[in-house]
Amino acid sequence: MKLAEAAGLFLAFLARLITGAQGHWYGCPPKAEQRIYFANHQSHFDWVLIWAALPGDLRAVTRPIAARDYWTSSPLKLWITREIFNSIYVSRQRTDDQDPLEPLADALQRGDSLVIFPEGTRGSQGDPQPFKSGLYHLAEQFPNVQLIPAWIDNVQRVMPKGEVVPVPILCSVTFGAPLQLQPGEDKRVFLERAREAVVALRNIH
Amino acid sequence: MGALRNLTIGQQVGLLFVALFGVLVVVTLVAFSRTLRELTPDQLETHEQFHRDLRATWLGAVLFWISWALGAVAATLLFGVISFLALREFITLTHTRRADHRSLLLAFFGVLPLQFVLAGSRHFDLFTVFIPVYVFFAIPVVSAFGNDPQRFLERTAKIQWGIMVCIYGMSHAPALLLVDLPGYADRGAFLVLYLVVVVATAQIVQEAASRRLRRRPVARAISRSFSWRAWLIGSLSAAFVGALLYWATPFKPIPALLMGCIAGATGTLGEFVMKALKRDAGVRSWAGLASVTGAVGLLDRVAPLCFAAPVFFHAVRWYFGLR
Q1: A16, A154, A167, A174: best mutation site toward chain B, by most B Cβ within 10 Å?
Q2: In a domain, B320, yes or no
Q3: pLDDT (mean) for A173-187
Q4: Neighbour count for residue A181 (Cβ, 10 Å)
Q5: What does the pLDDT look like over A76-98, one tens digit per residue?
Q6: Which residue of A75, A113, B3, B77 is 20 to 30 Å from B133, comparing CA positions?
Q7: A-chain residues within 8 Å CB-CB of B91?
Q8: What is the Cα B258 distance to its own chain's centre?
């Protein structure tokens, strides 16, 4: 076993020890289909939680998105995001000649699954903020990839903004039924529908 | 049964585990044979519940055996992990705010390990007062530095309570394992087993009695099954079983009877208090579907032990006049 694999297993174990990382597959079974999971974003811990809640063989093909300027700034950060999580790097600065979604589209073309947080930034408590349009463009470009809404519960209590050490509190990830972009559906209507699909999972336990 | 006392310690321990696993095997076989018959959905549910409990008992027995085989350090570690999981479940279902983050960290990563280290290293004087005195003052101080006065008393009280039940109560189980009683060295496992058996007996008998008797519940809003008579029957049967097991303990038959009664009575009362707590948190069982986070229901199983262990531990120490 390689070091990165072992570190990944250890990290998943740690996440389970601290949060339980319960995955509730409410609307779809955990299958090795190509998927885009989209979830509410409350804490740095969100990605690790979704990742730990996935079955082991899905972890290898499900990739997060990392900000290039931050996560490549030191060798350790680079190693964690590249070797353990196999992240997709996107740059936060927009340049005119480059589509920011291009790395994501590349990964989807290769058949990988993605986890995205369409709110863009970490929200405070309460309802998620309006979704950014990236989800819509991906859904348009890749109609065959399943869009799975997910609600992450309780994680803001584990590690509130500004804290470094997580407190052990049980969390869960509820996965909902796949969403489809309707033909000719307006961007804003679709994004609102997607957001509501995520929020609706809050009350299912 | 006096002859059993003449065996060597090793033989007695061996006998204990043979008996324990023998009983478990028999119960499992009987339970399995029952599944071969047709069952009504109602029976099936009862059976599934029983099956879950049985699995938990198996796990507990195996862990108990492993911890015994590996010695004091492993046993302390094992109970420490259980305490950690129980506290995790407790904190999940209580309302805490951002400002409590540091005190929660202190509880999980400071108080918990330290308390079990104190138990494992047999510092029973400090072990007894560490949480009720020092941690009692430390937690609100740390919480107050969180700079949030909203519901301050309520929040700290809940954290204190969780620490008291999940860490303090639970840590008395390894302490029983390690306490040195005159003429009873290296046989702490019997004391722990005695405690577990007696508490379990009280619980099971009380449950069965309340179903059979259908008395008026004492506090309907908290538990529909708890009645004084059922509680008394449970405690008395715990006393009876305790007296039967006297050969395995450092007590004479009458004190063994009394100790069994005390442990059984506190255990079942502890379970009753836990029910009130669950009602407050709005869940029926720590495990059930209603719980936010899919807690595993560990707290349900260990709560009676958490209540009974400290009382029993100090009763034992007092009985032997230990300081």
Answers
A1: A167
A2: yes
A3: 88
A4: 18
A5: 889 988 888 889 988 877 766 67
A6: B77
A7: 167-169
A8: 19
CB pair distance less than 8 Å for A168 and B84: yes
- Lowest mean pLDDT across A84-88, A192-196, B8-12, B247-251: B8-12
Average pLDDT, chain B: 83
The encoded tokens of residue B138 equal: 């430390």
Which of B146, B178, B210 lies at the terminal end of a domain, its last residue?
B178
Number of domains in chain B: 2
Residue B314 lies in a domain: yes
Q: Containing domain of residue B290, as a range?
A: 188-323
B48 in a structural domain? no
Q: Residues B235, B265: contact at Cβ < 8 Å?
A: yes
Let me know: does B146 contact B103? Beta carbons within 8 Å.
Answer: yes
Per-residue pLDDT tens digits for B112-121: 999 999 998 8
- The 10 Å Cβ neighbour count of residue A37 is 21
Model pTM score: 0.84
CB pairs under 8 A between A and B: 50
- For A63-81, letters b (16+ CB in 10 Å) and e give bbbbebeebbeeeeeeebb
* Structural domain contains residue B245: yes
Domain edge (last residue) among B178, B199, B234: B178
Distance of alpha carbon B39 from alpha carbon B47, whole angstroms: 9
